[in-house]
Amino acid sequence: MYNIDKKQGYPYAWLDEIIEVTLNPEKTSVSELGIQQLSAIENKFDQELQTVLKDLKSSTFYQFSSKKIKATVTHYYDALRLLEQQAMQNLAGYADNHPLAATGENLVLKLQNTGAALKKRYGKYVEDKVADDHHTPTQPIAISKIRCKLSVDQIGIILKAADDAKLIIASSISVIFRSIVPFLSTENMKNISWNSMRKSTYHIEQMDKDAAIATLEKLILIIKGY
User: Fold this and answer.
1) What is the reported pLDDT for 139?
2) CA 132 to CA 209: how far, in whole Å?
3) I want to staple 201 with a disulfide (CB 3.0 to 4.6 A). Which of 134, 160, 177, 223 is the partner?
4) Helix and strand counts by DSSP (H, E) for the chain
5) Cα separation of 95 and 110, whole Å?
6) CA 219, chain centre distance (Å)
7) Cα–Cα distance between 205 and 122 in angstroms, integer?
8) In Å, what is the CA distance from 34 to each residue of 2, 23, 103, 155, 174?
9) Number of C-alpha atoms within 13 angstroms, CB side, residue 150?
10) 3-state DSSP call for residue 175?
11) Residue range 54-104, pLDDT digits in tens
């Protein structure tokens, strides 16, 4: 189904194949992937992301024009964000009881962390946008994470309530968490685990319920004032 030692002509070749094809439930029977295959993919994924960063360093080292450096960095950064977007779309289509769900979440975090590392090193050259002529308006790209003042557990309560009230329609509550949580952050946590948030709704603390209710009541008052 995939070649773990595939030679690549450019830094993203192997990563593209894995995200766009191998782990894409719309193109591959991902349920056939076993634990050993997924483990091999995760290990190779780390190596390939490091290769991308090293290749970028090499590509910009002898460039003395800020314009050329910016063009190169933007090219690498935009490609990385497109991979992150596709990885999140893949994740939303994985079955809860398959090891692929955990692997999918790990790969999204790896891509996000690599993007953060790239942005930290080349911040003045990076713009939080992705240019992709093939992307349609129905497939939005996460430009940046949205910070929420609620805690992870409190956000989870609101998403669970939205699902139970059928305010948000999806095939399962896990799909809701997988689709929304990667775009969120809190004041104390930049990268939130959708699975941990989902599990937090199994045992809801009264303090978190009170905070969620207070927030919703505040919204009601604001809406009444419109």
Assistant:
1) 41
2) 41
3) 160
4) 8, 2
5) 21
6) 28
7) 42
8) 13, 12, 11, 33, 21
9) 21
10) helix
11) 999 888 888 888 888 888 888 898 899 899 989 988 888 887 778 888 898
Nearest to 113 by CA among 25, 187, 45: 45
Cα–Cα distance, 143 to 170 (Å, whole number): 23
CA distance 66 to 48: 26
DSSP three-state, residue 84: helix
Phi, psi at 98, each rounded to 5°: -105, 140
Question: Measuring CA to CA, which residue among 159, 150, 169 is closest to residue 211?
Answer: 150
The answer to whether the beta carbons of residues 111 and 83 sit under 8 Å apart is yes
Mean pLDDT score, 8-22: 86
**In the structure encoding, which two tokens stand for residue 224, read together?**
């009444």
Is 55 buried (19+), middle (13-18) or exposed (0-12) by CB count in 10 A?
A: middle
pLDDT digits (tens, 9 = 90+) for 135-184: 434 344 444 678 999 999 999 999 999 999 999 888 778 888 888 888 89
User: 139-143 — which CB contacts under 8 Å span 24+ positions?
Assistant: 139/85, 139/89, 141/81, 141/82, 141/85, 142/81, 142/84, 142/85, 142/88, 142/182, 142/183
CA distance 182 to 26: 20
CA atoms of 224 and 178, how far apart (whole Å) = 32
The full length of the chain comes to: 226
Band of pLDDT at residue 9, cut at 50, 70 and 90: low
